[in-house]
Amino acid sequence: MIMHGTTIIGIHRNGKTAICGDGQVTMGDAIVKGKAQKIRKIYDGKVIVGFAGATADAFSLLERFEEKLKTNKGNLKKAAIDLAKDWRQDRILRRLEAMLIAGDKDSILLINGAGDVLEPDDNIIAIGSGGNYALAAARALAHKTKLGASEIAVEALNIASGICIYTNNNYIVEEI
């Protein structure tokens, strides 16, 4: 059975990074959970991560990512590149089905199993079922308002939840 139900939006704006995620998990055409926690602070609260995809896979990646952060003394970009290399090259990791958004006080990145580490030009990135809806809303808000990173992330997720059936407005937002 196919599981859907994640929207994660990350924004770096005015020296702050926020990641917001909804809580819905859907199996087939039924909502099986409404308050899943898909956002975490790691590395002593200095890095925020949000994940989309298979939960067990995402937690495996989060653990490895935190190890890479420790090895690279908190260098987000270097840790992300090292994780992406391992993810792409390791037979077991290669089968993991998840994506991560990671941010610190200086930047925000998308990390995926294809070996990509992407830093968005406009400092806004989204993943998951409602990701494109949240991304469009966040870009519009960023261009037309003076709202902060957290406020834009929450409003973008609320907009996505009104469009995407796999997204709800039970959200968690973390900011650094």
TrEMBL record:
InterPro entries per UniProt: ATP-dep_Prtase_HsIV_su (IPR022281), Ntn_hydrolases_N (IPR029055), Proteasome_sua/b (IPR001353), Proteasome_suB-type (IPR023333)
One Pfam family of this chain: Proteasome
Reactions accelerated catalytically: ATP-dependent cleavage of peptide bonds with broad specificity
Recorded superkingdom: Bacteria
Binding site for Na(+): 161, 164, 167
Residues forming the catalytic site: 6
Stated regulation of activity: Allosterically activated by HslU binding.
Subcellular location(s) per record: Cytoplasm
Alphabetical UniProt keywords: Allosteric enzyme, Cytoplasm, Hydrolase, Metal-binding, Protease, Sodium, Threonine protease
CDD domains: protease_HslV
GO annotation (BP), single: proteolysis involved in protein catabolic process
An MF annotation (GO) of this entry: metal ion binding
Keyword Cytoplasm: yes
HAMAP family per record: HslV
Family: Belongs to the peptidase T1B family. HslV subfamily.
Subunit structure: A double ring-shaped homohexamer of HslV is capped on each side by a ring-shaped HslU homohexamer. The assembly of the HslU/HslV complex is dependent on binding of ATP.
The name this protein goes by in its record: ATP-dependent protease subunit HslV
Organism: Cloacimonas acidaminovorans (strain Evry)
